[in-house]
Design a protein that fits this description.
By secondary structure, the chain is α+β, with helices and mostly antiparallel strands. The chain contains ten helices and 20 strands.
């Protein structure tokens, strides 16, 4: 079956969860005294695109290498397509890998690079040529087949690395920060192109990145990793609007964070005393609990709102930053320690002046609440 014949509609999250293609259970990896992964569990559906997102050293690349078979876990299991491959060598896993540096062979042509994995699988002749042609067509590089890879741009080399990985019709495709060497505009273009290619093919894919915007753009679901564990695994919208921990909130997107103490709690809503005054949030914390209230910058508006529905505070405008599609306003509170960010599509008529004290409002329902660290 050719790569083109693999085309299938992308699964919904519910369908993906019901038809798990990759199952990782209680996975652990140590390097000497350093525990990199600890009892990690992950389930990826057939045809799903999952991003492993987290800071350097959180274990995401180690997890990818364990799935590829490039290293072995100290404990736990890795199952792909119903087969336990925990101890299976890499060349018997039918896994495609796109590395950060692409790992192309400079002495081979584009077509020879794409066909390299096929030849290792003892595929040759007309079948080899057909698969190479199909893979190059998918990444729109069929006219470059006889060129040296050293004559290609970074974006073209990235396409060849993807073509080589999908030519072998892998059971799963692993991508280790493949856009890190590209400039911003090309990186954003390649993100969309790769997303479309992989969804058209229906290939299950796991993608490593430390770029939150990249993960939000490309993923069906995102696993946010911290210190060798997954803190939140969910759809991009869920990760952004309802993060499960303060770490996830701070790592994915910008936010205003207001530490305080719970003054009152009743009816599924709490009142919190902060440096900017008393605010309200959905929740059920005990009175006296130390908490952190948070709100996304696009949820904050200028001016006061009805008290039954909005939190309203006063703050001093410190800076105005124009970013093209939006304007960022930076405020500070009375103690000058409270940093508030507001994102506006456009400034109000007459503009704003740094140093002015303004009222800011946001919906109580948009206030997120976390236990203080």
């Amino acid at each position: 079956m050719s790569a083109v014949a693999l085309a299938a509609a992308p699964p919904t999250t519910a369908a993906a969860a019901a038809a798990a293609h990759v199952e990782i259970k209680q996975l652990g990896k140590r390097f000497g005294a350093n525990t990199v992964l600890q009892d990690l569990a992950l389930s990826v559906g057939q045809g799903e695109f999952v991003s492993l997102l987290g800071p350097s050293g959180c274990g995401k690349t180690t997890l990818l290498r364990l799935i590829a078979g490039l290293m072995l876990p100290d404990f736990g299991t890795i199952t792909i397509g119903g087969r336990d491959l925990t101890r299976t060598p890499p060349h018997k896993r039918n896994v495609g890998v796109v590395f950060q540096n692409y790992a192309l062979f400079p002495h081979l042509t584009v077509a020879e690079n794409v066909g390299f994995g096929l030849r290792n699988r003892r595929i040759d002749g007309a079948e080899l040529k057909r698969r190479v042609t199909d893979a190059l067509a998918l990444v729109r590089m069929q006219d470059f087949a006889e060129r040296s890879v050293t004559a290609l741009s970074g974006g073209q080399q990235q396409r060849i690395a993807v073509a080589r990985a999908i030519a072998v019709e892998p059971a799963i495709l692993l991508l280790d920060e493949p856009f890190s060497a590209l400039d911003r505009k090309l990186r954003e273009t390649m993100q969309i192109e790769l997303r479309h290619i992989l969804r058209d093919l229906g290939i299950t894919s796991i993608f490593v990145t430390h770029d939150q915007d990249e993960a939000l753009v490309m993923s069906d679901r995102i696993a946010v990793m911290n210190q060798g564990q997954i803190e939140h695994f969910g759809a991009p919208g869920e990760i952004y609007t309802d993060p499960k921990s303060l770490f996830v909130l701070e790592f994915v997107g910008q936010s205003t964070r207001l530490p305080g103490s719970v003054a009152q709690s009743s009816g599924g809503q709490v009142e919190i005393d902060t440096a900017l005054g008393r605010i309200r949030a959905p929740g059920g914390y005990l009175t006296g609990s130390k908490v952190v209230a948070a709100v996304r910058p696009e949820a904050i508006m200028l001016g006061e709102g009805p008290a039954a529905e909005f939190n309203t505070v006063k703050a001093t405008l410190a800076d105005i930053v124009y970013l093209g599609a939006k304007t960022q306003l930076h405020f500070h509170g009375p103690a000058r320690d409270e940093a508030i960010q507001v994102d506006l599509a456009r400034l109000p008529p007459g503009g704003l002046v740094a140093g002015a004290e303004l009222s800011l409002r946001w919906r109580i329902a948009d206030t997120m609440l976390f236990p203080a660290p």
